Amino acid sequence: MxxxxxxxxxxxxALARHGHFGRAAESCSIxxxxxxxxxxxxxxALGGLLLERSARQVALxxxxxxxxxxxxxxxxxxxxxxxxxxxxxxRFAGRLRIGMIPTIAPYLLPKITKNLTRMHPELDIRVRExxxxxxxxxxxEGRLDTAIVALPVSEPSLTExxxxxxxxxxxxxxxxxxxxxxxxxxxxxxxxxxxxxxxCFRDQALSFCNMQSAPPxxxxxxxxxxxxxxxxxxxxxxxxxxxxxVPVETRSASVSLARFRDPEPSRTIGMVWxxxxxxxxxxxxxxxxxxxxxxxxxxxxxxxxQKA
Length: 308
Known about the structure:
Strand content: 15-25%
Radius of gyration: 23 Å
Domain HTH lysR-type: 4-61
Order of helices and strands: HHHEEHEHEHEEHEHEHEHEEHE
Keywords: Activator, DNA-binding, Transcription, Transcription regulation
Number of strands: 12
Oligomer: single chain
Distance between the termini: 37 Å
Low-confidence stretches: none
Function: NodD regulates the expression of the nodABCFE genes which encode other nodulation proteins. NodD is also a negative regulator of its own expression. Binds flavonoids as inducers.
Pfam families: HTH_1, LysR_substrate
Largest sheet: 8 strands, mixed
Mean pLDDT: 86
Structural class: alpha/beta
Protein name: LysR family transcriptional regulator
């Protein structure tokens, strides 16, 4: 009989993801020697080497790579067993892992957390903030329960729930207050400040201006909306920000705001979760809390399961 524990599988999954004993041990809240011992015992139980160990890094063997995917599937199924048990209860309690993109989290997270804690005091809310591709990967692998992102994500294994539409505003130096609002064609001739590669908001801004990428001479990327607004305040260029960011990002900046003519640039904010999640009913309820927190009316015909 194969003597393998769930603990060993979770430790191996952490090591496969981090590629480093120290970081994997830290993520599992154990010591590095303890993690190393559990991995060695797992190798002995399976009768094969999982890792190629060197002084600087850890690489998976071919056997280890094949096992890593199977282990992720096993752990996801085990987690969903717990979710199934929780879903059968009348109250919503226990761990809830929510992912959010950086252009949403600073503005909605405090209100969402406050409302969820008030409505479901037994929830243990854990938040992960990172860019959309990483959130989707972690969601598919079972490391998140749901994510709040800009739609669509077009991942076949996920259900998408559109929540509300959000407009983008033009941010210009304070001296530009009252001047005509440029068209999208004129925007292509201006110094447009953007978030760095990987942010979906960057792609949305470029799409509005009918640009595939920013011209190299105009390239000046930032990793936060706050930095973009402060650069505009310094007279370096112009940028676009979502409505929800305006109260936070412009309160201490000498900038002017303007709305574009119709059709205004916008994005669809929504939630996504695995089609197989037993928590689907509860997550749908949470989507209503997100709309409440944003002060928005729920979009019609909002639930869409992607076809494989």
